[in-house]
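Lab channel / #folding
Pinned by the channel admin:
"Please post every new chain as: sequence first, then the structure tokens as a reply. Keep commentary short and put observations after the output so the thread stays searchable."

First post following the new format, from NK:
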Amino acid sequence: MDHDKIAALNARIADDLYVQGWSICPDYVPENLRTALLADLAAQEEAGRLTLAAVGRDAAQTVETAIRNDRTLWLAGRDLAPAAYLDLMGRLRLDLNRRLILGLFEYEAHYARYDAGGFYRKHVDALHGERNRVVSTVTYLTPDWVESDGGHLVLYDAVDQDREITRVLPVAGTLAVFLSEDVPHEVLPPARPRNSIAGWFRCNPSGEDRVDPLR
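Reply from TO:
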């Protein structure tokens, strides 16, 4: 892994987040790592471990296929590829804290597979003031993705939530990063299966009257 390249990209991500609240980095994840992650995801899929994603938190979680119909599996660092990816995001966490003083405490992530025609309606990843998710990430894994394959991630303006600010084509290796509370976004239907990793950097909102550990 080219550590100087990652350091430069992390600096750019921090600058982008400070200025506009989002950043798109093509070719962020090295090809050998994303190939290994895709192979791991395929093995988990074959083993039947991916399940329909839910919306909401804790006891309020429900499966709502009219809102989203992707299938997910939480990452654990037991295997080489997920561990290497979590290490890469750990370095991003430290660099963001160093440059932006965000107080990011931990990171959680899951594989996300959208079958052809899948979607996730417009939403934000955290309610204002909750601080359970501060910075969101999406990493794309499916190779040879072209414009006609669709499946774009659409980011919307924080104030005028009907105004698109960018569309991200899910090209393998691309990393999208944005502020969880401030950037509404949606996933448009792909023409073929679309594989990614969605993740969130969290602060630690646990206290004397509230316990909110990582999954």
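NK: The mean pLDDT is 92.
TO: also worth noting, The CA atoms of residues 40 and 79 lie 9 Å apart.
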